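Quick start: read one record
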Amino acid sequence: MKKTLLYILLLLSVATSGSAQHTGASLYKMSRLVRLASIEAKKGQGQYAKTLTGGRERGDSRAFDVPGQRSLCAFVQMKGDGRRVLEENHCTPLAQFGDIYIADIPLRHLDGLSLSESVLRIEAGRSHTLTMDTTAVIVDAPAVWNGSSLPQAYTGQGVVVGVMDVGFDVTNPNFYDTTLNATRIRRFWDQLSPDSIGSGMYVGADYRTPEEILAYAHSHDGLIETHGTHTLGIAAGTGFDTPYRGMAYDADICIVSNAVNTDLPLIPEELLYKYTSATDVLGFKYIFDYAQEVGKPCVISFSEGSSQSFDDDERLFEEVLGQIQGPGRILVASAGNDGSRRTYQHKPRGVERDGVFFLSQSDRTYFCMASENQFQICLSAYTSATEREQLYIPTADILNAEDSTVVDSVDFFGHRLKYTIQACRAYFNPDLIAYYLLAEMQGGVGWSLFLSAEAVGEDAAVDFYSSATQFYPSEINPSISGGEPAYSVGSPGCAPSVICVGATAYRDHIVNADGVAQTYDCGHDGEVADYSSVGPTRDGRIKPDVVANGTHVVSSASSYFIEANPEGSVKDYTVATSRFHDRTYPWAAFLGTSMSTPVVAGTIALWLQANPDLTTRQVMDVLAATSHRRDGAQQGEKDNRWGYGEIDAYAGLLRVLGLDGISEISNHHPSRLDIKYADDTVWLSAEGEVPAERVSVAIYSVAGKRMLQKAVRLSSDPSGISLSSLPSGVYVVQTTSVTPGFTGSCVFRK
C-alpha cells in the first residue's frame, strides 16, 4: 500500500446556503468532507479538487459554478422511513445496510437533508490510496494444492476471489484457466470507465461476459497504473508458463477498479464527490453480490488505505464493513507501509515540553495532537541552532473559537506559514480532544526553514500522530524527541471486522531480466519488514492481525502499462516476460503490504473451499491457532508488529477441516518427502538423500484414532503402504524421522 499525502482542509466558518429551500445546515451531523461539500455548494468553489491534489488546480473549474450538477456519494444514518426521506430530498438511495444508507446526494439539497429530524449522520471520506514462487512455499501452499495428498485439491475452486484495486490488465494469461481456454474474470466494474452512457452502474460501467471483458482490455487507468494486475496475480493467478503461481489459482475472479489519488486527472471535476469511501463500499458490495448470485463463498483483497481518524468520520464506514461481511464473505486489507517512518510521539505528564520536527515536499501538510488536558502549541522556525522564532497558541483559544477552528498565519524569517487548527472530540473517548493542524508554506513545508511543533505544559500528556507529515529529530534542537514508528496502521485495515495484513521479508534483492541486481534490504529470514505499518489503532486495539511475505514478490504486471511507460521504473523490476496472443506480458517483483494482503486473501480462499461458511471471527481463530511467530513469542500471542504471526496455509487448513485436534500429527507437510495416494496405497518418495533409519508412518482417522502404523525404509523408488483393510473416508498420514525434512503430515481421501 503506497501511502501518499491526504489533505484535510479545515474551514473557519459556514456560509448560508444558496438553496431557496433552507437557510442553514446541521453541521454537527456532517463529517469533515461532507461539511466541505456543503460549503462548496454555497460558494461555488472547487476546494475538494484542490484538497485532493495538494492545492494544485486541475484545469477548468467552471463546473463548480453550477452546484446543481454535482452530487455526493455518502453514508446516511436514518431513523424511520429513511428511503422516503431521501427521496423527498431529491436523493437517490444506492444501497441499504440496516439503518445506514449509501445515497447519491445532490449538493444543492445536502443542507436540507441534514435538517431532517430523521437524519442522524451524513458521512463520506476520501477514496483510498495505494499502499509467486517462493511466497507460496513460505506459507506451505503446495501441500494444500496437492490434491493427491488431501481429501480433494484445495486450489480455490468453487470460491470467488474479489480484488478492488487499480491498473488491471484483464487480457493477462495469468487470469485464464489452467487450460488457457477462457478467462476466469466473471465480472468487472470499472468505476472510471468512460462507457457510462447507458450503464446501470452509479459510476463507470461493468462488463459481464468474457467477450466484453477481454474487449475492454484494461481499466481506464491501466496506462498509468499496474498495481491491480500484480495483486490479483498474487491472490489468484495461474502463473501461466512461469513458476509465479498465485494462491487460489482455480478460483473465479470478480474485480472492481476504483478511484485513488493518482486517478484524479482522469475524473472530471464535477464528478469528484461521487468517488468517496462510500463508493468503495459499493465496490465491495458488487463483488459480494456477484458471489451470492452464483452461490459461492467470497474473499476480497484490498491493498489500499488512508490514515486513521480521531473523530467519527469513519464510524458509519466501519459499521457497514461489518454488515456486508458474514458467513463466506470476508474482507482483507493491507496495514500500510509506514513502519519505518516516525509517525508518533508521546509527551508524558510532568514533562514541560516535547514535540517533533515536521516537513513535507508538498505546500501543505497536516498532523494531529491529542490530549485530555489543555496545553499550548508552540510552532517554531529555525535557521540555525541559535536563531529561532516562535508562536504560542493556547488550546483554550481553539476550543473557544467558532466551530472550534482557528485560521491564521505567521511570518517566520520572511516566510509565511499559514495554519489551520481544528479541535474535535475523539469518538472513542469524550474526554480526549484531538487538534488537527494544517500547515501551508510555499515551496514545501519545512524545507526553507526547520519547523517544529511542541506541546507545552507539564499538566498535559500529549500524543502526536503523523498523517501526511514526516516527523524527525534534528540536532538543531536535540531536546525535541522527533517521534517513533507507531500507530501507523491505516484504514480500513484498522476496522474491527477487517483482517489486517502486515508484511514479512525474505529477499533483499531481485535480479531483473537484464541480469541487473535490484537491492532493497528491509529484513531477512521472515522477520517483519521494516516498512510494514505497526499498531495499535488510535483507540488502542492490536493491529495488524497477521503477516505474510510482501517483499520482492513476483507476479504479473500490466502489458498496457509497460507499453505506455517503456522506460519506467517497472522495467528495472521485471524479471521475465511471456508471450500470449501476440502480446508480451511482464512479470515483476514489487514489495509492500499491498503484496502480502493478496497472499492472505488467496490463502483464505483455499480455506473457504474446505468450509464455505467461514466467518471473519472463525478465520481470526484459525490465524491465532496456526500462524507462526518467528520472534520467539508463543503461538496465539498477538502484538502490533506480528499480529498473530505469519500465515500457514496447510496448518490453517488442518484447523478448518477439524484435524488439528489429533495431538500425534504435525501441523506441517514434510519438506523432503512426497506423499501420494493411489490404487488403495499410500506412496512415499524421498527427495534427495534418503535417511539411514526407517521412517515411522502412522495412519489416523479424522476422529484421531490410529488405524495403522508401520516402519518404512525409504529408497530411490517409491515405498507403498496398502490401505485395503480400511473403510472409505478421510485419513491423516503422519511420518516421523530424526532426519530433518522427513517429519510431517498430509491428508487424503480413500
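The first strand starts at residue 71 and ends at 78.
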